[in-house]
Amino acid sequence: MIEDKNQQRTQLSDLGEFGLIDHLTKNFKIKQSSTVKGIGDDAAVLNFEDQKVVVTTDLLVEGVHFDLSYVPLKHLGYKAVVVNLSDVYAMNAKATQVTVSIAVSNRFPLEALEDLYAGIETAAKIYDIDVVGGDTTSSNTGLLISVTALGALSEDDVVYRNGAKPNDLLVVTGDVGAAYMGLQVLEREKEVYKVNPNNQPDLEPYTYIVERQLKPEARKDIKELLKGLDVKPTSMIDVSDGLSSEIIHLCKQSDVGCDLYENKLPLDPQVISVCEEFNIDSTTVALNGGEDYELLFTISQEDFMKIKGNPNFSIIGFMKESKEGMHLVTRADTRIPIKAQGWKNFND
Ligand code: ADP
Ligand code: MG
């Protein structure tokens, strides 16, 4: 949040478009055997041989999806890549390449874009993907980032949203609600900072949830983990908008209903304590928070023993006939219809 007055500021116009692209992308190395030609020609050339290819894209807009007053650009670059990889993993594919397009106003110096690309480079390294292209253009106001991710998999491995059957178990990886509570803490600290810029925030008690917001990770590990357990999900989706909205997607597309158990929702202890501090119901946060980038999937009952007790997974409910509807079964054993609240970018 503190602007370093001594920081170097190189005008983007000093480099020109080609100089800029060259400067930002010179460190990217090709690692995937499916990349024949990366950055530098009119288009990348890829070779997936007999594999199927998945493609997904996301657009992030300053002021709508991120706030640069508390999101460091390095984290933003990292997150922009990771949220796309999450969609690739939700198809049960291996992520292989991304393209990154940016529109940037001249209020950003070169050093800011270097930070953004340092985050992109880190994500590419950690997730073992190639950056094979993109586009660079100017914007009149803020920053826009669009990432397209590609992944590969054999045809038999593809998992869609629409394969869930009645009696299948509903499973989620990791824990939920932390990224949303991290955002609440950051928003609060931003207000405090506005009133008193000398007040440095103490984020120490909130490390986990703030990290989940600023530097989320996608579940690259789950495909191999499930393969090792000999489990193929019947349906799968990643948790970006919030658990309840993703459950509704799986149910509607699979034409099933579902019972979700409140007491099975996986919450980190830090989420529970910060919910108390903010006086917010932790179940509401778990269901509607979003940006968890965990995977939500269904498995056949036959596979129950294969994942039972595995710390990576929580069995949070089971699917029913669609006429039974979608319900949250509360701790008090009442049944509440599941509604999507999620991120309403167009409404609020
Ligand atoms: P074109 O004029 O065909 O759009 P560009 O000059 O925009 O080509 O891009 C040159 C090369 O640099 C291409 O390989 C393109 O994919 C890549 N590239 C352009 N902008 C970016 C960016 N922001 N990040 C990564 N690669 C980029
Ligand atoms: Mg171009």
Record the SSE blueprint.
Elements: H1 16-25, E1 35-37, E2 45-46, E3 52-61, H2 73-89, E4 94-104, H3 110-126, E5 130-138, E6 144-153, E7 169-173, H4 178-195, H5 207-214, H6 222-228, E8 235-238, H7 243-254, E9 256-261, H8 269-278, H9 282-288, E10 295-299, H10 304-307, E11 313-321, E12 326-329, E13 335-337
Parallel strand pairs: 4-5, 9-12
Antiparallel strand pairs: 1-2, 3-6, 4-6, 7-10, 7-11, 8-10, 9-11, 12-13
This protein binds adenosine-5'-diphosphate and magnesium ion (MG).
EC number: 2.7.4.16
Pathway: Cofactor biosynthesis; thiamine diphosphate biosynthesis; thiamine diphosphate from thiamine phosphate: step 1/1
Family: Belongs to the thiamine-monophosphate kinase family.
Query: What's the CATH H-level homologous superfamily of the largest domain?
Result: PurM-like C-terminal domain
- Would you tell me the structural class of the helices and strands? alpha+beta
Number of domains: 2
User: How can the largest sheet be summarized?
Assistant: 7 strands, mixed
What bound compounds does this protein have? adenosine-5'-diphosphate, magnesium ion
Number of DSSP strand runs:
13
The CATH topology of the largest domain: Phosphoribosyl-aminoimidazole Synthetase, Chain A, domain 2
